[in-house]
Design a protein that fits this description.
It contains 17 helices and 2 strands. It has 356 residues and is mainly alpha-helical. It is a multi-pass membrane protein.
Length: 356
Amino acid sequence: MAIPILPEMENVVTASESFSSVPGASKAGIGRVGGIWPGLVLVGVITGAGYSLREMPGLVIFSPMILAVIIGMLFANTVGVAHNAKEGIRFSQKTLLRLAIVLLGFQLTVDQAASIGIGGFGLVALTLAATFLFTLGAARLLGVERRLAQLIAAGTSICGASAIVAANTVTNARDEDVAYAVASITLFGTVAMLAYPLLGAFAGLDQNAFGLWAGASIHEVAQVIGASFQYGPQAGEAGTVAKLTRVALLAPMVFAMGFAARRSGGGETGARAPMPWFVLGFVAVVLWNSFVGIPDALRPYIVFFTTLMLTMGLAAMGLNANVSEIRSRGLRPLLLALSAFVFIAGFSLVLVKLLV
């Protein structure tokens, strides 16, 4: 519902105002391109601030994605967002995010996934499925709304913020839920990155076992790399491969979520859930990267622009998030994220000790 606006404030709206009030939002061609620029510039500034803030002492452990979400939320809920920025924000939140997920495929090959072996793949897949189901079950006990629970489940079991974004194409959760899920996943992923090397040594894991454990259970790719390479080079390689195998399971998991939502039918989510066809682009890029390939010189640029677009998309979500609504969610979703983190860490460690 639109909020009444004073004449002198007619170009400013709060973060909670609907996109439906944006004039010309459905126009195509030159008009649409012109319409997205103000929002793209704002999103770009927020994104740049996230990257810059990450260079400050003590903040380097955080992804620019989570910093951009926070900055976007602070901006939207203090300064406000101009009417003419809405179209560009929506473009960043939808188009750029989906393109970034497609480009994630360039960070994975079939050979990398196969190198983990049948046992390693089974461990990763079983951990993913068990964690996802556990999180949904725990959400019912804690009274956490299902859409937010699905985002936390996806972020914990698959690959952090990227999985949350992909899962939200099916769940259609509010931007506040996405922001909450990303923040909680980042929190516990950071804890894991710092604590795992100590826990691995206490558990007596060798480098290969530790890398498999870290890759199967820590949330973000960067967090896995940070934790596993602290343990040793062999652990770093094993952790990276295990984590990329989890990333490869993003596509079937999101398709399964979409299929389940559409089959449920009776609920609002089931009625509206689209099939995430852009995930097919992710699969196609993985296959291209595996059997055709790209020049090695291009890879760092692709990785950079993938992260950049993910950060822009999450900055856009922050610009649409209402802080008061996030606070209204309370601590139960945070407790759910903690429970999911403890489960995936413990479950995967038991499997590693039994199978490796």
